From TrEMBL:
Residues with PTM 4-aspartylphosphate: D51
Gene Ontology MF terms: phosphorelay response regulator activity; transcription cis-regulatory region binding
UniProt cross-references to SMART domains, sorted A to Z: REC, Trans_reg_C
Stretches assigned to the Response regulatory domain: 2-116
Gene3D superfamilies (alphabetical): 3.40.50.2300, 6.10.250.690, Winged helix-like DNA-binding domain superfamily/Winged helix DNA-binding domain
Protein's GO biological process: regulation of DNA-templated transcription
Lineage: Bacteria, Pseudomonadati, Bacteroidota, Sphingobacteriia, Sphingobacteriales
GO CC, alphabetical: cytosol; protein-DNA complex
Record-given protein name: DNA-binding response regulator, OmpR family, contains REC and winged-helix (WHTH) domain
PROSITE patterns hit by this protein: OMPR_PHOB, RESPONSE_REGULATORY
Amino acid sequence: MNILVIEDELSLQETIRESLEKENFHVETANAFDEAINKVSFFDYDCILLDIMLPGGSGLNILRHLRSIEKGDNVIIISAKDSVHDKITGLDLGADDYLTKPFHLAELNARVKSLLRRRSFGRKNTVSFQNIHVDMDNFSASIDETPLTLNRKEFDILVYFILNKNRIVSKPSLAEKVWGDYMEDADDYDFIYSQIKNLRKKLRDGGAKIRIQPVYGMGYRLEAL
């Protein structure tokens, strides 16, 4: 996945780049308006992180340009400007999300992943498998239209399994996707077992027509019953 970070504060730009590269994204950067216009005009990106205040011009005009060349999808505004007017203008011009500085990198990474996940479903924010329905915008899940009560980690695990249904999901991969890249050095993954145990029980008790099957020595696989 290719991400363009348009940010003139070089220390923040570098911090964002390093964080996203740890998530295995390919990251390019632009420091000013003209450089950003050239890059978005000639190259395609899966996600653009866009500051509004830039040397040489406004990020809002970059949004207008993106819309004019039909590349306005998958833009997250990152800006210190926190007025309702700026947010509304940015969203009206086609931005998908708006994150106000200062922000935690974990939240930025989560917003990027959520946007890319929606993109993989044709910008639909729901996904289903068998009698399970998941609404990723509202962080809700249901079994045959009956609400399924999940904590946030259980929800994220379920979404990741559905996105990878019928595939073997390793514990390290699951830990990295749900808990973040700092999990790559974890000594063990007992915390995953307890979350999956609770999720499996809730799915079983709710009558879900799916199961999370352990694969010895490898991880887990989500299957239809």
